[in-house]
Specification:
alpha+beta, Methane Monooxygenase Hydroxylase, Chain G, domain 1, five-stranded antiparallel β-sheet, globular
Length: about 170
């Protein structure tokens, strides 16, 4: 997949990022090829160099505004993950995260919200489970904010106004 300077992307090990340049081998000892210069939206001082021709790291364009609005409109119909066995549930969280798809982040967020607020669940959420929820929300809200052109802090309200929230 080709990216251009200023494109916003989802980068598997950096989250929501922006292509800020394209350069030839940035450091001695690196293979001689072209690299994307990638800057994390959350950590703007963090610079990543990814070979333009590499298929080892997952990168994709972020959603368009229309795709973001369609996803938000679909939230009420997106099912959470239903699994009673906590070990299998964590595997399903991991599988969903590895798709790097926003609809899967919604599934995880819905599942975590349901489990955190379900009085029949006798124990608290584990740190691992809480971490999946925080990461899914960070990726989802970060991508929606860029796609919709609004601050990330307003995403909850935007979703609530359109569809009543993620839960």
């Amino acid at each position: 997949m080709q990216f251009n300077i200023n494109d916003y992307i989802f980068y598997s090990s950096g989250g929501i990022c922006q292509i800020t340049g394209i350069c030839n081998t940035p450091f001695k000892g690196m293979p001689d090829r072209e690299y994307y210069v990638i800057t994390s939206v959350r950590e703007p001082k963090e610079t990543i160099y990814a070979p333009v021709d590499s298929d080892k790291v997952y990168m994709r364009h972020i959603m368009t505004r229309d795709e973001a609005e369609k996803l938000i409109d679909m939230i009420p119909s997106i099912e959470g993950i239903y699994e009673e066995n906590i070990k299998l549930l964590k595997e399903k969280y991991n599988e969903a995260m590895k798709t790097y798809e926003p609809a899967q982040w919604v599934r995880i967020s819905k599942t975590i919200y349901r489990r955190a607020n379900d009085p029949s669940i006798k124990r608290r959420l584990s740190e691992t489970e809480r971490s999946y929820g925080e990461t899914a929300k960070k990726y989802l809200y970060g991508e929606l904010a860029i796609a919709l052109g609004i601050p990330e802090s307003e995403i909850d309200g935007y979703i609530s106004d359109r569809v009543g929230g993620i839960a």
